[in-house]
Write a structure and sequence with these properties.
CATH class of the largest domain: Alpha Beta
Number of domains: 2
Strand order of the largest sheet: 4-3-5-6-7
CATH architecture of the largest domain: 3-Layer(aba) Sandwich
Shape: elongated
Number of helices: 8
Low-confidence stretches: none
Length: 198
């Protein structure tokens, strides 16, 4: 006995989401089918509202309701340093740390030659423009510690070197191959304190 075609399509749609395998996709699909119409409508509405109201900050490329985002608009922050991260989720992870009060920049991914993702596919040129325009003294490279993150960090260090900025990398505390968004506050705090020059 096969599942009805609309359910199959629903499952296939859920499987396209990151981290959702076939079993989870099936579970989510059947959960929504058993939910009340008002619950499903509220779910759909929340997605639509987020898609309509969330935009990228024109300064740091974080997702926000405002442009510039609250971090970029905060005049109390230390505007001499920028922490560059891969994703908005990574920015949120670092922002939980109490001992960092600088600015941010979201690359929108990491270099991955095997996946044909080069410097033009992420915001490297936008970062360089911002570093030249603003009075930045230190660039903290907070990319993930996997192969793509390390490749990106080394590439950024080479690109930024001619600008005469101090370029540091997060220090100990983050496991090799781990994702920044899943690290706890203490681990990220230690990594920021232990950053090293590249």
């Amino acid at each position: 006995m096969r599942r009805p075609n609309p359910i199959e399509k629903m499952i296939e749609s859920f499987k396209k989401l990151p981290g959702v395998g076939p079993k989870m996709a099936e579970r989510l699909s059947y959960h929504l089918l058993k939910s009340t119409e008002s619950e499903v409508n509220a779910f759909i509405e929340s997605i639509q509202k987020a898609r309509q109201e969330i935009k990228l900050c024109s300064v740091c490329y974080n997702m926000s309701e405002d442009d510039p985002c609250p971090v970029c608009a905060d005049s109390e922050r230390d505007n001499s340093m920028i922490c560059v991260v891969e994703t908005p989720q990574d920015l949120l992870a670092v922002s939980r740390v109490k001992n960092y009060d600088g600015l941010y920049f979201v690359l929108g991914g990491a270099l991955s030659p095997l996946d044909a993702i080069g410097p033009d596919d992420i915001r490297v040129s936008e970062l360089i423009k911002r570093l030249k325009k603003d009075k930045i003294k230190e660039l903290i490279v907070a990319t993930n510690t996997d192969t793509q993150g390390e490749t990106t960090a080394l590439y950024l260090a080479e690109k930024v070197k001619p600008l005469g900025l101090k370029v540091t990398r997060l220090g100990y505390g983050l496991p090799v191959g781990g994702d920044l968004e899943y690290a706890d506050e203490i681990t990220i705090s230690r990594a920021i304190e232990g950053r090293r020059e590249m």
